[in-house]
Amino acid sequence: MAYCATPTCTLPLHHVLNWSPFRIDALGIITMIGAEQVNSAIGRLVRSRYTEYLPLLGAFVFASDQFADAKSGFALYNLTAGIMTTDIAGWFSRWCMSQGFERSSSRVVWTVNDRSRRKKGCLRGPQTADGVLASIIGTVVNATLLAITILQGDWWGFANAVSMVLSVAVRAYVVQQNRNALDAAAEKALHETNSEAKIEKILVILSDARMVTMYVPANVVYRCFVSKPDLKHKRLYYNIRMVGWAGFAVQVVSLGMSGLATQLVTVSIMVMATIATHFHIGCQEEIVATRLCAAKGEFGPNRTRRKDVYAALELEGHEEESMLAWNLMPHKTTPSATSWWTSYMKDKEEYKKRRSGENTVPQHGSIHSGALKKDECMV
């Protein structure tokens, strides 16, 4: 073995740089696997106390802004306003698909966390305990990879590690900007008073045909669920995304030139972080960004058919007319439809009698106090 007298050869882990008993296609792994899972998980704008600042597969998803794109195949029916739309905000469609809702019986009560009601001195966002924990984990993991490449003298690996840190920084910025925009939209909806109803009753049909009933504060449907969050500093947002593309290009070039040990550590970190992100480990699904809070529940084990859910909704006459116009209820033109309507009206009356005195389903004017605990939305 030839003697090496260069400063790099004296590094503690330099012998690891030449260790290569086999080869892996690390470049193919980080560019072709996991992008769709990362898109769906991060795009729902829910924080994770563990993976918020860890490098993930498919970094180009954030550089290209794909995680914020709208999804097709969804429909939202606002029974209170008599309006339907297939134009759904990207975060909302991703959040709905990740919740594991039942076929028809799931319901969600949404509230907006009023910032003025929080206790003074309460920390929020990255300053919360979860944010601090995520920062510590991210710093330790990324610093470890940087240290390993430096101690090997693997400068291609060092460039790869730097590009990973850059990708995390870009992701943190673009995702936070979308969260801030959603918070601003919720804040605006909270103080708007142009709607007669305090609570809007909506049905959401997901791309796999599941139906979810939701009770939402007035104006939140339009501001948050339908409209894409209006970003501030759009030029800076665009420039940061371009930096993300540059970092991704550096990783594409440098990872293949790195030592095998660096490639294995890189792939291991990114794959494990992506798996944890995909399975929502460390996430509080009830809180989206910092202002929107969702309390999930079911209408009951015996209400699995849509007809049963419609009966539990206690629809008013104009709401039933809207349902007919949207073809969500059978038209009264055939004997089978007449039988369906007779059964539906009977179930509706029976449900109303059983619900009398109970504190379960929110109605038009307000949300019952038992539907959501006051502290569930606090961050």
A few lines on this structure:
This protein is an alpha+beta fold and 379 residues long. It has helices spanning 14-17, 26-32, 35-42, 60-63, 90-97, 129-152, 155-190, 220-226, 234-257, 260-278, 306-313, 317-325, 335-355; strands at residues 75-78, 83-85, 106-112, 199-205, 211-217, 287-288, 292-298.
What oligomeric arrangement do these chains adopt? Answer: single chain
Rg calc = 26 Å
Order of helices and strands: HHHHEEHEHHEEHHHEEHHH
User: Biggest sheet: strands side by side, in what order?
Assistant: 2-1-4-5-3-7-6
Structural class: alpha+beta
Largest sheet: 7 strands, mixed
Give the CA-based shape. elongated
Quote the average pLDDT: 84
Number of strands: 7
Helix share of residues?
A: 40-55%
Span between N and C termini?
60 Å
